[in-house]
Amino acid sequence: MNYIDAEIVKGTKKYKISNNELTGTSLEVLSFVIGKVKKRNYFSSIDGRIGRVNYGIEDEYRTIKLRLRASAYDEHDIAHLRDEIFNLFDGEFYIREMRNNVTTVKYETIGSNTNDMNLGNSEYVNGKRYLVALVSDFDIADMQYSEFDLEFETVMLPYAETVYTSMHLHRTKYNEEEAIYGLVDGLNTDYQDYVFTTNTFKVWNAGNVDLRPENMDILITINGLSSNGNFTLKNKTTGDVFIYKNSAYGTLKINGLTISLNNINVLRNTNYEFIGIAKGLNEFEVLNGTFSSISFDFRFYYK
After folding, report:
1. Torsion angles phi and psi, residue 165, rounded to 5
2. What are the C-alpha distances in Å from 299 to residues 132, 159, 187?
3. How far is 283 from 281, CA to CA, in rounded Å?
4. How far apart are CA 233 and CA 228, in angstroms?
5. Going from the N-terminus, what domains does the chain have, and what CATH number goes with each?
6. Within 10 Å of residue 202's Cβ, how many Cβ atoms?
7. For range 276-298, the mean pLDDT
8. Which of 117, 177, 198, 254 yields a CA-CA distance of 20 to 30 A from 266?
9. Which of 128-142, 238-252, 289-303 has the least mean pLDDT?
10. Which among 245, 238, 160 has a CA at the least distance from the CA of 203?
11. How many angstroms separate the CA atoms of 258 and 94, rounded?
C-alpha cells in the first residue's frame, strides 16, 4: 500500500496517482515535497552609499517535487504505461497531497499471514490544492520497474488555496470528519458565517494571505439593496472603501474588479475602489442604504 499519494484534478475529473483510469495501479508516489514560496527582491544601489536599498519583495512561485515508481505488467505494457504517464501529467491542473494517517501495526506471530500490515488508504492531509504545471523534463526507463522525478511550479498564484469557498463553509459549517476540510486550514468555529443582515459585521479570512481583488476571486453580493446614492461598503480593517454613487435598487455584485447592478456593468458609477480582505478578522460597515443580505464568497490562501 501507499503511505504517500497525490490527486490530480483536471476540470471535473480526478486522478489518484496510485489508482486512476489512465495508469491503473501502476504508479506509486515515493515522496511529495512542497517548497517554500520563492521571492522576487527589488534592490537598487546608490552612488556614494554603502549597501543596497530594498524597494520591496514579491511572492513569485513555488515548486512541488514528486518521486514516482512505475511498475509495468510486461514488455508491451512498458510502452502503454509510458504514454499514459505523459498524458496524466500534461497541461495545467490542481494537485492535492495525500498521506496515510495510520501509525500502528498489529502484531503477527511467526509464520502467520493475517494481512494486518494493510494500513488502509491514504487520505487528504488538508483542504488545500495547488494549481501547477510540469516544468521538468523526464524520461521513463525502458524497464518493467523504474523510478523517476517530476518537478512542478505553481501557475498564477504561488499559494495553496482551499478546495472549498467561504460560502460552502457557511452552508455546511466545519466538520472534522469531512474530507473537504483540514485540521490546519485556520478555520475559526466562532466565525463561520459569511451572510449578514446587519450594517456592521465581521468576516474571517482563515488563510495566512491577504486577499486582493486584482488577482483573487472575491464575490460580494448585496441582495435587496435600496439606496438613494453613495451606498458605501467599508472594510475598517484594511481601510478599503467602496462607494456606489447613484441610487440603487436590486442586487449589487462586487465580483473582483467587476461591478454590476441587476447584471448590468456599473463600474463607471463607483469611486473605482475595491474591497480586499486581510488575513484573520475583518470588521465591515455598511452606510447609506438598506439591504436584505450581504454575502462574501472567496477561497482561503496559504503561503
Report:
1. -115, 170
2. 17, 11, 12
3. 7
4. 15
5. 4-158 (2.40.30.200), 165-302 (2.60.120)
6. 14
7. 98
8. 198
9. 128-142
10. 238
11. 26
